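Query form — protein DUF3784 domain-containing protein

QUESTION: What is the three-dimensional structure of this chain?
INPUT:
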Amino acid sequence: MNYSMLFIGLFLVALGFLVRRYPILISGYNTMSAKEKENVDIKGLSAFMCRCLVVMGVALSGSYYFCVWMQWWTIVAYVPVFVPLIFVVYALVKAQKYDHNRKNNNQKQRGT
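ANSWER: The structure tokens for DUF3784 domain-containing protein are given below.
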């Protein structure tokens, strides 16, 4: 039996708990200056990212094996692509509420 989706799901769950314990693992937060980090609700952000990663890992493994069990072979091929894509877009949009740094339209974005 193919255990790769189970392994990836468990990896995402473990990564979620690591992000909760070590928030410096959050991409974007670790590149901020000390002044910008002061304006981020890191406890809320790390808890949110933990929940997102845990739910994504469970949903990825669960939906994959559910589709295999139901013998929906055409859907099985799309589960590893669309489940993480949906969760990543959701996390990117919702995680912005924890960043309280002022954004100016004339200010250049970081990294550009």
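ADDITIONAL NOTE: The two ends are 45 Å apart (CA to CA).
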